[in-house]
Design goal:
The protein is of the alpha/beta class. 34% of the residues lie in helices and 21% in strands. The protein has a single domain, classed as Rossmann fold. The chain contains six helices and seven strands; from the N terminus they run βαβββαββαβααα. Strands 2-3-4-1-5-7-6 form a seven-stranded mixed β-sheet, sandwiched between helices. The protein is globular and about 45 Å long. Keywords: Hydrolase, RNA-binding, tRNA-binding.
């Protein structure tokens, strides 16, 4: 919990309509939902390859971010925006897809490795640190022998629509909980 200025909330994904509804873009989908819930509009930032929406969540200044780079180059835009808005590393929240969590489940953590996730790897490299918050959005494992890299770039199945809607809503709630009540409260609410 902090009163020290703004939070940078980043939703990872790949740019363009081809990827918009894929599993890999669930972080970006949550950002779209947060902007809509807070009557905000994402617009192209003048200093970074990203769309941003400056808003308040429960009274706390929050900058919602969707990098417009490809996933493996997310670090540049995130670092540029953290610098532009003077947001300390510990007030950055990254929302990302997570294969190791069942669909629609959420886990909240601070720090850690990248677990093979190219978006996290890029951000970690840009800051030379992993000390930021993550909201891990469960997309589940691929069925059978399907390659995980192929799986994350596929659209969610129509049969999963309800769970995806729930994941987006809960992702928004997890962001609000984390920035207003703190890490422990968010972990207690979502990591059980």
């Amino acid at each position: 919990m902090s009163d020290n200025g703004a939070w940078l909330v980043v939703g990872l994904g790949n740019p363009g309509p081809t990827y918009a509804s894929t599993r890999h873009n669930i972080g970006a989908m949550v950002i779209d939902e947060l902007a809509a819930q807070n009557s905000g509009k994402l617009t192209r930032h003048k200093r970074a390859l990203a769309e941003v929406c400056e808003t308040r969540i429960n009274g706390i200044q929050t900058i919602l971010v969707k990098p417009l780079s490809y996933m493996n180059e997310s670090g540049g835009p995130v670092k540029a925006l953290a610098s532009f808005y003077k947001v300390p590393l510990e007030q950055i929240v990254v929302l990302h897809d997570e294969l190791d969590i069942t669909l629609a489940a959420i886990r909240v953590k601070f720090g850690g490795g990248d677990n093979g996730h190219n978006g996290l790897k890029s951000i970690r490299s840009a800051f030379d640190s992993g000390d930021w918050h993550r909201i891990r959005l469960g997309i589940g494992r691929p069925p059978g022998q399907q390659d995980p890299a192929d799986f994350v770039l596929r659209n969610f199945a129509t049969s999963e629509a309800t769970q995806v809607a729930e994941l987006r809503t809960q992702g928004c709630e997890a962001v609000a909980c984390l920035i207003t009540e703190g890490l422990v409260a968010a972990q207690n609410a979502y990591n059980s």
